[in-house]
User: Fold this.
Amino acid sequence: MLFDTHAHLNAVQYEEDLEQVIERARAEGVSHIVVVGFDRLTIDRAIELAERYPFIYAAVGWHPVDAIDMTDDDLQMIEQLASHPKVVALGEMGLDYHWDKSPKDVQQDVFRRQIALAKKVKLPIIIHNREATADILKILQEENAAEVGGIMHCFSGSVEVARQCIEMNFLISLGGPVTFKNAKKPKEVAKEIPLSHLLIETDCPYLTPHPFRGKRNEPSYVKYVAEAIAEIKNVSFDEVAKTTMENAKRLFAIDR
Ligand SMILES: [Zn+2]
Assistant:
């Protein structure tokens, strides 16, 4: 059984055929999915899906690209949803210096406020990092995010940075890029970081693994991520599936 720890089944890309996408995931042994919300619309939809399907859980947070749009009411809504029985984490949150819609200082403020909230409601956090590693590490340290821990989602950094994140109580989640021939860093991370600190995810509809790279991604493809890790580590597929499942259940406090 496989745990897709980061999926956006709440995205418009699944409006037409969500049922079939979910059926294919189930047929491939995906027993748990965390659907991640990152703004008003996708948060609502993540909760809706988590309420409808027993094997879907929700994470709720505010994306750094849209940090500039987050109001006090939004943060309050996230706080209220934190006590929902199917909400297992806050996020995604973090920093994204690739796009310039939200200024860096606004992103950092919104990130810090969400970490503080996670500590208040005692939920782990899911981190989005794009071209902002130094500031992410600095803020996680300063805000003592280790208290709640969480996930470095779709990790693309070095082994060294992965180790620093693990020190701060974070798990390293690998996605589609670990299956790409030219993806040196994710492969190194898969090789060097013990399975006990790894998770698998799709980040669907984005980052589709080989051999479907370029097409829409979906949770059934998480098996390609597990296969790639198994091959790199020279362990069985079942061992990757089992250990990443245990890691995810422990982090999200899911007991079934
Ligand atoms: Zn995401």
Observations:
- The longest strand covers residues 87-96.
- The two ends are 12 Å apart (CA to CA).
- Strands lie at 2-7, 30-37, 56-60, 87-96, 125-130, 150-152, 170-174, 198-200.
- DSSP finds nine helices and eight strands in the chain.
